[in-house]
Structures are given as structure tokens and as C-alpha cells.
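User: Sequence in, structure out. Go.
Assistant: Echoing your sequence, followed by the C-alpha cells.
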Amino acid sequence: DNYGILAKTVTALENVGKISFLFNHHKVSDLKASLINVKDTNKIKADPSIEKQVNKANNEFKKETSKVIIPNNKVEFKGDKNIARTQETNLGNLITDAMEDYAAKNFKHKPDFAVTNGGGIRASISKGKVTQNDIITVLPFGNLISQIKVKGMNVKKAFEHSLGSPTETKDGKKQLLPNGGFLQVSKSIRVYYDMNQKSGSRVRDIQVRNRETGKFEKLNPNKTYYVATNDFTANKGDGYDMFGGQREEGISLDEVVGNYIQKHNLNEYNTNNPERIINGKLDSVKKSTHKSDNGKQSSNHTHKKSA
């Protein structure tokens, strides 16, 4: 008998995977796989009963998630996968700051910093009205905020892994190739790296904010840090084998972010300049980002207190 299976492939349903095979006497033969581009399915007439079920479920979901989080957002938050998986983004900064804030208020131990994988960020947030559905579209997997303990030497290994992608030159500029494990980071950590070095040897310096003094200090390889992240990354997802172990868990990330943006001033995120994950030779980077011409700390290392 001839059989066929349809399956989702890649991401965002760009294609439908078709697997066909013969099945006789409990044996599979003539196995073939092919891709059907979704654009080529436009003229296919939908099954009325299935279409009705899908539309009903979709409409109910939209209704349940139509709550307005911000009536008039004035900041464009960039979450395009080619950005979120290659460099710091203001949306990644927002999400991880929200995670650090939640962990500080709800977990047994205050976090030293927060990280989340860029591959888990699936959309941008536009200016104007922002609903609960918009937040869920950005973070659709229902991942739970988690907190784990990570030794300093493993924090460095994690960022070598995060920044270990091959590079390419695009429009005359060298950049990392997209990597779902690229870590977006919260305001309490700074990572300096050199893209011109080989993979595994790119991290030049890591600075973590001291919770007591408020000052950034060099990562201590022997110190244990409390790291807020999501349950996927905490459980060694995306190849983070240096993570794992016992973890404390909270609510879903979309709830964490939704609660945070209702209570905080978002103007501080209205920038596309890297402030937390900075590429360049260590000495020149530190001179340009630690001090401004008048000797005061530059905006790269200070953040306005949230309203």
C-alpha cells in the first residue's frame, strides 16, 4: 500500500515536508522525502471542517490574548532572527532585564545576571499598541524562567560557545553567522570579544556587576554565579553542556516580559548600539566604552533607573 506523511520543516512553516513510502507485510520500502513550498499551496482548497476548527481555535486564542500591555509603545524592538542570533539587540536586552528583575524579586537567591538564547526570540515588537498576543509571538514556546548556579570558568565557556559561530563578510563588514544559541544578556554583565580570533578563543573579558557595590568586576573563574535563564537553556539546550544541575523555576517568559514592560520606562532601550556584548580589541574597546571625554562613565556602562 502507498502511504504519505506531511510534516513541518525548518521554521515558521516555510515548507511542508512530504514523506512517501510503500508498506507491505510490515516492511517499509521506496522511502522518498520532498519539500512543498507553502506558497505553492495557495490554490489548494481547504477542507471545510478542518478550516472551521482551525479558525475557531485561532479566533479564541486571539480573543484570550488581546489584553493591551502598552497602549502606545514608542520603541521599535528588533527581534529578527538574523539579528537576535548574531548580535546584541534591544529586544534581547529588554527580555533579559525582565528576567533579572523577576529573579531578583521571586527566587531564593538574587541573580548575578540573566541570559536567554537568541533562537528563542521569534519576532520583533513594533511601535504602537502592544498586546499579550504580541509578546507571545516573540516568545511562543512557553519556556519557564529558571535560575541555575554556574561556576565562573563555565560562564566563560558558555560565552565562547555563544560567540563561536563561523564568520562571514557582508556589505564589507565581518559578522557572526546566525546561531540559535547566541546569548542575549542582561544589564548586569558585559562581554568583550574579538571576532577576528578563532572560535573558542574569542572572549577577551567578562565583567559582572557586584550586587553590593553596583560596580562591574572581572569574572572570577572560581566563584559560583546565580544565572537567570530559561528552562531550555538551563537544561543544556543549544549545546550548553556547561549548564544543567538543580534549578529554580518560575512563570513563563512571556508573562515575565509582559509584567515588566507594563511597569518600566522603555526609553532606555531606544538604541541599536552594542552596550553589553562588544566586539573589538580589549584595550580600545574599554577606553571607548568605560570613559567618555569628560572622564565620566559613558552611556554604555550606565543605565537610567527604571520608572
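User: And one key feature?
Assistant: The CA atoms of residues 54 and 84 lie 30 Å apart.
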